[in-house]
Prior knowledge:
By secondary structure, this protein is α/β, with parallel strands linked by helices. The chain folds into 2 domains: 6-138, 3-Layer(aba) Sandwich (Rossmann fold); 148-278, Rossmann fold (3-Layer(aba) Sandwich), CATH 3.40.50. The chain has 8 helices and 10 strands. The protein has a 10-stranded mixed sheet with strand order 3-2-1-4-5-10-9-6-7-8, sandwiched between helices. The chain is elongated.
Amino acid sequence: MMPTSTVVGFDGSRTAWSALDWAAQDAGRRGLPLRIVHVREPWCAEHPPDATGEHDTLTTRCERLLAGAARRARDSAPETSISTALVTGAVTERLRSEAETADTVVVGSRGLGGFAGLVLGSVGLGLAACAACPVVVVRRLPRAPSGEIVVGYDGSPAADQALEYAARQAAVGRGRLRVLHGLRHPPAAPHPVGFGPVPVDDSDGIEQRLSDWRGRHPGVDLTVSMSFEHPIAALAAASRTADLVVVGAVGLSGVSCARLGSVGHSVLHRAHCPVAVVNAQPPPA
Length: 285
């Protein structure tokens, strides 16, 4: 069976170059092939209005773009097997199809078709919500890597899989793994006038689950941080110094595994480093 790949969706935008760099380094660290995919939308004309000659077609431009991306990826990860693919269709749908056989799909936070001023595009949101593999959205790369990966953990199935993904990243040389757990507030509870609801202290249960996890993964340098902040604020703050933030697609407050939860959605908009969103996979039949 062929090894699965790190797939990067590439359109030549500023954040796509950052995503390419992250994907190449990730594939190199983990010994995976890198597949660079450019999606050509079917309604785009083959002969652009600004073409300089009969051979200056949209296809040739796309091929040049992919060739340049492959050269940059080889410079970053010279021992990695690199391939390119020019496919036609709707961007989110084609990358979602790529995710069915990929180890990870990586995209920039905004593509060339985005509106100025928006932090996260529809492609990143659409993939993070329902891709079959982890999706990494790259807005910018850390200027000074810290060697720390932060994972949000609430004990949900998606959080368990996010923890496993974060641990795999830590195990291939990224460094420390910090598990961030926010004490939950009940959705509705009687409380004194003028005060908010008292947080649910489930730290003992979380500590026990992580203790069991440490026993199964003794080689991972794991620390736990309990926070009284809202998980979104805590993870956004942690992203200022982390190399990667990892979240489950839907946590305990989610209503469907096909939807991106509020924490994942908000962290994608607020993070200062790449964010990996991990969808919980159904148990085997």
